[in-house]
Amino acid sequence: MALHGTLTDIIESVADRHPDAPALPGLTHAALAAAVRRLAGGLAAQGIGPGDRVALFLPNRPGLLLLLLALARRGACAVLLNTRFRTAELAPLLARARPSAIALARDFAAVDAGAVLAEVPAADRASLRFAIGVDGQGRGQAAGLPVLPMAALLEAPEAPDAASSEAECLTFTTSGTTSGPKLVLHRQRSIAHHAACLAPRIGTDQPGAAFLAAVPLCGTFGLSAALATLAGGGAVHLMERFEARAADALIREARITHLVGGDDLLLMLAEAAATAYAPFSFTGFANFHGHAERVMAESRRLNLAVRGVYGSSEAQALFALQDPDGPHAGIGGGRPASPEAGFAVAEDGELLLRGPSLFDRYLGDEAATARARTPDGWFRSGDLAAIQPGGAGFDFQTRAGDALRLSGFLVAPEEIEGFLLAQPGVAAAQVVAHEGKAVAFLIPGPGYDEAALRAACAARLARFKQPARFVALAAFPTTDGPNGRKVQRSKLREMAAG
């Protein structure tokens, strides 16, 4: 596939090559391109153009993708906001991004978007001039702002292309550190290049490719795969909220071939699936909860074609992908999607990245941007990794902050967790360190026996890796993020110290 510098290039090129192929529900690729041109005209009529920003506080709806593409055509920037955010998260992000407008879904049952926005201090949302209603409720008001229906914006004349490869394109929100969330800013060239590179790597350029957007498109995990699908001429099917039985039915009805998700999502889907699917082309897998072996077993049962991937808001999701037939298929990491991308491992084990898919900067945080890069331009991922034999790819080990310092040795928690998960009666495991010793938090399954588990550890693990304590829980503390639900290791560390 030819690479492109803007999203407009991609959308128009695909519309020329595959005009009648389905793109979004009810829209072919030709109709998608035409809708983007009209929507860009509607945005232009409201004064949205190069350099402007518009916040998208939306669930997975076609309107989110249409607005993102129309903003790109205008040379404007989409500020992607998780619908799980509330006032405490929205206020600083809106104050930093200073968007001219915000898109809302007033009929989305999971959140009263207007009420949440109204609770944001007026000073933090002072830049907003109007709201865009991505719903069927017509004109109105939200938090004192006039609401313009997206349907009305689509009635405008088509706008000429004002896209630029150097224009600000979108921001993801990353959890950051104790300093608070960061807005990860990408220019249009990084988003467009990554989508175009990724399509042939995951097969969304093949006839009949269909992606199920089951994770939020406000995060890079869902959005990278969705844009790669559109770039390849495939179809994107959207779920506003993941529900396993509904997903199982949609996979069969829409003949889904592509999916991404964390281990919890994939195991919920597997529980709902009574029989195997028509073979998938690609399922990108993130091992958020330590269930890799179970996921790979279910993949074989259901024909999901699961393989480990690696990415971040800064590098974009699916930055690297494992060989589906290789020995590392169930591990995060692999070979970069772009032939121009590179990786290295520093002396302390930190994974360093470079390439065209990387972000431009943390919006409004020059100090954090400077800390994120080495003097010679590598991005410090904050992850620990190991180079695979032969050097073609890498394996993710753990977040650098999650690594365990045990009796003076640096140990990835996944190493101990993998051993524990292989023992009878252990359904899930998370390991943290406290005072130089490992503490294992477990979700027991049938046949759990702590004495037998302790004996197995003593017999087969180095002494410094053996957990000093085993703590049985009904569930791990988790947090919902734009890329899926993740275990809160910080909470487990607090529990270990308590």
As a percent range, the share of strand residues is: 25-35%
**Total number of distinct structural domains:** 2
Query: Mind telling me which CATH architecture of the largest domain this is?
Result: 3-Layer(aba) Sandwich
| Uncertain runs | none
Q: What structural category arises from helix and sheet content? A: alpha/beta
Q: What is the CATH superfamily of the largest domain?
A: ANL, N-terminal domain
CATH class of the largest domain: Alpha Beta
End-to-end distance? 55 Å
- Main β-sheet description: 11 strands, mixed
Which fold name is given in CATH as the topology of the largest domain?
A: Rossmann fold
Query: Strand order within the widest sheet?
Result: 12-11-13-14-15-16-17-22-21-19-18
* Total number of strands: 29
> What best-fitting shape do the alpha-carbon axes yield?
globular
Helix content: 25-40%
Q: Calculate Rg over CA atoms.
A: 23 Å
Number of helices: 15
Mean of residue pLDDT values: 93
Describe the overall structure.
The protein has 498 residues and is of the alpha/beta class. It has 2 domains: 1-400, ANL, N-terminal domain (Rossmann fold); 403-497, ANL, C-terminal domain (GMP Synthetase, Chain A, domain 3). It is 31% helix and 28% strand. It is built from 15 helices and 29 strands. It has an 11-stranded mixed sheet, sandwiched between helices. A 9-stranded mixed sheet has the order 7-8-6-5-3-4-9-10-20, sandwiched between helices. Helix 3 (62-73) links the parallel strand 3 (53-57) and strand 4 (77-80). Helix 2 (29-45) crosses helix 3 (62-73). The mean pLDDT is 93.
